[in-house]
Write a structure and sequence with these properties.
Strand content: under 5%
Number of domains: 1
Largest sheet: none
Shape: globular
Helix content: over 70%
Order of helices and strands: HHHHHHHHHHH
Distance between the termini: 10 Å
Number of helices: 11
Length: about 220
Amino acid sequence: MTLDAALRLTEILLGLALLQAAAEHMARPGDRAIHAVRAALCLALVAGLATDMVLAALFATSLLLLHRWQGPYNGGSDRMGILILCCLCAARLFPAQAELSFGYLAAQLVLSYAVSGWVKIVNPDWRSGLALSDVFRYSAYPVAEDLRGLAGRRGLLLAASWAVMALELLFPLALATPWTLAAALAAAGLFHLSNACVFGLNRFLWTWLAAYPSLIWLQARIFG
C-alpha cells in the first residue's frame, strides 16, 4: 500500500468513525451544534473535499470538546481519534514529514496493544481469569443478562484472558510478514468487534480500524 493510498484510506475510515460519534450526540440534547459541525466536516473528509482544512477544523473542534469535558470523556477511543487526527494533519500540512508522521501513528498503534497486554499480564487477576469474570459479573456495561452467566465459567474466561494477553503481547511480531500482519489485524479487529457486540464499545472498533492502514503501509515500507 502506498503512502498516499494509506493516508486517504485512513481519512475515510476516521471520517466514518467520527461521524458515528457525532450522530450519537446529535440524537441527544446538549452540544448538538458542535457535533453537527463535526458531522459536516466528517462527510467532507470522506468525500475528499479540502482535506487539509477539514482535518485542521476537526482537530480544532476536538480541542473544544476536550475543554468542554475537561479531557477525553470517552477514554481510549477519543485519545486514538485525536492521535490519528494529529498525524493526518502533520502529514498533509507538512508533506516532507508525512512518512515520519504516519510511521509514528503505526508505532503508537503497536504500542497500544503491547502495553495493554503487559498491563494485563502483570495483574494476577488477569492471569487467573478473575478480572474478566468481574467484567461480566459487576460491570455497568450493557451486558445481556444471559451473558452475565459467563462470569461463572472460570475455565472459559481463563482461556479467553490468556488469548487476549497473547494477542496483545505478541502483536509487534506481526510486522514480520504481510501474512502475519493480516492475521494479527483480523484477530485484533474481531477482538474489538466482540467488545462492541458484548459491551457496546463500538467507538473503539471503528477508531482502531482507522489506524490499521498506517501499519499496513509501515510493514511494506520497512520489510517490503
